Amino acid sequence: MTRPQWPAACALLCLFSGLAQAADDRGLHGAVGLSAQHDDNLFRLPDGVAPAAAGVSRDADDDGSHRGDLTLSPFVSLDASLAFGRQHFGLAGTRRETHLQRYSAYDTQTGDLRARWDWQLANDFDGRIDAGTSDQASDLQDFLGSRRNVLTVRNEHASANWRPRPDRRITLDAQRYRGHNDLPERATSDYEVRTLGVEGGWLTSLGNEWTLRWRSTQGRYPNRSIVALTPIDNSYHQHDSDIGLVLRPGGRTRADIRVGYAVRQHEQVPQRDFEGPSGRAAITWQASGALSLDLEAVRDLSALDDYDRLFAISTHYALGAQLIVAAQWQASLRWSEQHIDFGGDPQNIITQAFGQSPARRDRVQSTRLAVTWLPTPRIQVEMSLEHSARSSSRPGLDFSNGSAGVSTQYSF
Known about the structure:
There is one protein chain. The protein is mainly beta. The protein is built from 3 helices and 18 strands. It has helices at 6-17, 20-26, 349-354; strands at residues 28-39, 69-84, 87-100, 108-121, 125-142, 145-162, 168-181, 191-203, 209-220, 236-247, 253-266, 274-286, 291-303, 311-326, 329-343, 360-376, 379-392, 399-411. It has an 18-stranded antiparallel barrel. Strand 10 (236-247) and strand 11 (253-266) form a beta hairpin. It is globular and about 65 Å long. The two termini are 31 Å apart. Residues 1-25 have low confidence and may be disordered.
């Protein structure tokens, strides 16, 4: 894979800088930027384990002893909008490349393009229709060598809101995702997911909002399997329902609480069915004009494609603070901890032959400090430090890593 052409990226920056003055007049906006990040444990390996010993692909001139690497990622994005009365149309696109200095086999190129229509009929009906496509090109590394694979994801979405009263709302929402891989070896990862949902919301006299939501999801993974030697149809049907409440006591505090229940069923493999409660609670407090604090707790239930587990129950806690230090300086600090319980018995040929492995439980902790400098309204520079660590009940999965990065962005 060729190295990035940084002079060309700089030329793009100069070119789009010339459009900045006229961008607002035409409804054209965009940004160009570059981020650089060094991670001292890129592949999340246990202490003392080198990438070469773990089978990580590397460049021919590298001995595979280095656990860290420098990642450079330039990007460019454009967003054009046009309005006709109450109808608003938009087209947005982004192109990003990710280049690793030492492990260039893991370089990626991504691009996405999305069109949208925000529609409104009278004062009671409004919604959005949008569609997009995204592509991610990366190399598949195995015993056959390196081959380029392009994952293409297409998405269509439509929503409609009816407001019989200013404080009442009924929303219908439909969405479809389709993922396709170029390489036949990746065909087991092709998918199609369709969702259909309805939500009702109403505002109280105190400015709080209640919501009640139901959603149905159908996933088609006709070639997906936990064990590649026994391909089966892993398609599923899932129902989610939840109730939510948004509180705004005192004007400076916002509390967003949501509690729900999810049930997933598989047609051909009912032993993979699972269900359970989920929920989220987030509180944001604007302590002053310069300082805000937030607290979040989330319980989520999600499916897995592992050889000995089917789903994961994750409990996530986070604390954050944002501070405006001066007119051009901002700082943020965030700490999070996640507990993950892996459950379910896939009952495949491996578990039947060797038995189900002991239950796995992970704990992941992360702390991130970021400082943002805004020398002008159009230029943003962010510097960040982050540390994360995982402890697992399964041997060989513990790791710790630290990263330092800087990102720049010019908006026009």
